[in-house]
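Batch job 17 of 40 flagged for manual review because the log was empty.
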Amino acid sequence: MELRHLRHFVALAEERSFTAAAAREHIVQSGLSTSIRALEKDVGALLFVRGTRPIRLTAEGEALVPSARRTLEAADNARQTVQEVHGVLAGQLRIGALQTTGHTLPFASWLAEFALGHPRVEISVQQLAASEMVRLVADGGLDCALVALLDGHPAGLDVVPLLAEPIVLACPADHPLARETAVGLVQLTDERFVEAPPAWAIRSEIDRAFAAVGLHRRIACVVNEWSMVLDLVAAGVGIALVPQGLDFTLHPRSTEALRLVPLQGTSLERRVDLVVPSGHAATPAARRFTELVRSKLSAP
């Protein structure tokens, strides 16, 4: 079994298209097909269902993906270990990040400093639901991620706490609640809500808080972009519970039309943590990025 066959397999599994996977690996499609057939011969099973669009993995193919990723990462780590002896960091850094990470943390500055300090590292950033990013870090699909954890310390992952910020009410400036100094959840039961998707950690946190006190809320609209949440609230579609640290200067159309009101009687907050595989399971680039973040957090 050759590493290039595994690399081509992972590319096709992720891209679900021979054209896209071949372009990603800089080979012709016929070469990719030959590589996949050679791997299937090695493992003694078909890995993809032919004739489907997009390309679909067989059960055997699904089972192979995590092991293939770990094998490729181990090979990259071995290469990088040798390169680190010479003081050169290379390879790739695949980071997951919350959509609002740049509002409350200098994520772009950290990323820029890392990129300039390690020009041979290829960096990619994905913005996904927190639960999906944690799963990808655990399975090797991401090297690290800035996420909002809900259920404690994930097994096999190191967690670096970055921040905890209150969740507050966002409502139109002319809404009756805008005049309040603080509001409780019970005051919101008759309101219409603009919400984040159920897969988002902040949505899960809010759902739990309402369920814990036996309250139900009416959801008028679900959108997966905070700027749209703010615009819809400003337009009067509903109210929303949002992280206090959202940078409202990024949404000038909504700023004057909105009011933020603290919550009372609840400890709702949004956390952001850096998660990275524990010990040697982390890639050299992920370890170096984590070291950079830790140094920034400890700086005066």
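Reviewer: the log was empty due to a logging misconfiguration, but the result itself is present. Residues 69 and 141 are 7 Å apart (CA to CA). Unflagging and moving on to job 18.
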